[in-house]
Fold this sequence. Notes:
Layout: H1 6-14, E1 17-19, E2 24-27, E3 43-44, H2 46-55, H3 60-67, E4 68-73, E5 76-81, E6 92-94, E7 100-102, H4 110-114, E8 117-119, E9 127-129, E10 136-143, H5 146-169, H6 174-190, H7 198-203
Iron/sulfur cluster is lined by residues 36, 42, 81, 89, 91-92, 102, 104, 108-109, 112.
Amino acid sequence: MSSPSLDELEEYTSRLIPVEPSGVFRFRCTRCGGCCSGGPNVSLTVFDVVRMARFLRIEWRGFLRGYVKVIIADVMPHMLLRGDERGRCLFLAEKHNGVKLCVIYPARPMRCRLYPLLVEGLKPRRLYLDPKSPGVGQGPERRTPSRLIEQYIWERREHYRRLHRLIVEEGVEPLEALYQALSEAWKEAEQGAAWADLDRLSGLGSV
Ligand code: SF4
């Protein structure tokens, strides 16, 4: 998949639809699978990775090798869900009747749980709807899932806080820092951390 040009990015950004943090919006999933077919564009935190690996009953290292693309930018490691040669997420399956589904749905990443809502940066007050989704503007009115958004923001902050501590304060090399952060999160999940509880996460709401 080729990366979008700067002009295309600017045009896309200008079409984002702002949503009030405690507002309402219309959306109905059309099951087109489009949001899962745009290349490796789902960014992940260590919490996402550990939840997915545990759901698949594999260790985080194996999950990282098989499903994650790691990019180092400005000394910070970033993780993206890998896609196949057509840019489709490796977890997108198609039933014989053409209906598409996510095979790790209960443990899907936070970005997927919130889509088509996009949360900008680490600030809870900047929410947008992705204009590329054909379901935006359709269906019943929905309230923004504020508890889920809060959890997402906590996870992103915590993810980068841990990496920052390891890389900047302790001088650990970026990739090794990512491995240490994953290992730490894995142990927390094994000890029953609330963020690893998929039922609790579902109870925080969805889009
Ligand atoms: S993890 Fe599931 S919901 Fe997310 S992009 Fe992949 S198939 Fe789609």
